[in-house]
Amino acid sequence: MKGTARLLLVALVVVSVLVVPNTSDAQTSGGGDLGPDYVRATAADLGAGTFSGGGIPARAPSEEPHYVWARANDARFCVEFASPWPAELAVHITPRPYAVAGGVPIQAGPFNGDHPTAWLLDDLALLPPDARVIGPLVWDFGRSIAGDGDLIILPWCPTPGAPVPWEPPTAAEIWEQTPLPRREIGASPPGTRAWPGITRLATFLWSDPRPPTTAAVSLRGFDVTVTARPIAYAWTFGDGSTQLAGDPPSAIVHYIRRTTYDVTLYVVWEARARLVYAPWGIDLGDIDLGTVTLPETRPYHVAEVRAVLRTTPGRR
Question: Strands across the sheet with 38-40, in order?
């Protein structure tokens, strides 16, 4: 129409489609990284971890051993002889008693602080001049707090002040050595620079489900078998908001501002562990490891769409 400028409305229409995450946007994790497929918890991941929201079923792992020792001293003394003892001392000298686990004799030791060559003397007044007294015979009794596993009765000749023969790893220590499968975060739109999310339009986030997992680790002579399963999920979207999720975890978020956000999926794992003291083959039973909350984070880029009004040049 003459005398009237024709207006051309330029608009961008974005259609959301389901795609897999762009591999150029590498994901990172808050746990101890074991590569692209597995991750370990760190001290920051124990219990509820670094999740900023509430409502997840987190139970802080114990940092105390689940196994307890009690100690008692015998009236006899551990003595090392430099030469054969006189025949008249034979009725006063005896070998060390057997160690027992679960009612069965075991070959315990040698271990730190023990004197396996020592004999027992019931009267120090009869001590030969070339003999050396280590100290009283010690009886250590070990049992899990839960009451399962083998009861251990260990008579031995420790150096004075020696600690208990061994101390099992704590739940926290076990978590920090257990590999767990990582989770990829899918997004639509992908949230890359080439294909960003759009302000005020829906962004879809998800992750594939993971079955329970079993892992075997070794700690201080203990063979530990861990059975873990994911029990809860939560999201933080990088804009200050959080959301709990079901299994498999998914979410819809509407970003208001254009920028690059850190999207994090938190996976809450619970587990039990079976401990066996490998040198003696002693079963210490099951322990509850509590939970860890592992974060998987990926960047998500959001752009803004604007409508621009332009006049067509040279037209009247």
Answer: 32-33, 38-40, 180-181
Q: What's the confidence (pLDDT) of residue 222?
A: 93
| Rounded CA separation 119/257 (Å) | 79
CA 165/CA 36 separation, integer angstroms: 39
Taking the alpha carbons at both ends of the chain, their separation in whole angstroms is: 8
Q: Supply the DSSP string of the chain, one letter for each residue.
A: -TTSPPEEEE---------PPPTTS--EESSEE-SSSEEE--GGGBTTTT--S------PPP-S-SEEEEEEEEEEEEEE-SSPPPGGGGGGEEPPPPEEETTEEE-----TTB-TT-EEES-GGG--TT-EEEEEEEEEEEEETTS-S--EEEEE-BPTT---S--PPPHHHHHTT--EE----EEES--SSSS-EETTSEEEEE------EEEEEEETTEEEEEEEEEEEEEEE-SSS-EEEE-SS-EEEEE--S-EEEEEEEEEEEEEEEEEEETTTTEEEEEEEEEEEEEEEEEEEEEE----EEEEPTT--
pLDDT at 20: 31
- How many whole angstroms separate alpha carbon 308 and alpha carbon 316? 20
Structure tokens, 98: 């057997």
CA distance 136 to 132: 12
Q: What is the pLDDT of residue 26?
A: 30
> Residue 227's pLDDT is what?
97
Per-residue pLDDT, 306:
78
pLDDT of residue 291: 98
Which residues lie across from 278 on neighbouring strands? none
Write down the pTM of the prediction. Answer: 0.78
Residue ranges of the chain with per-residue pLDDT less than 50? 1-31
pLDDT at position 2 is: 39
Domain definitions of the chain by residue range: 7-65+171-303, 67-156
What is the rounded CA–CA span in Å between residue 36 and residue 106? 44
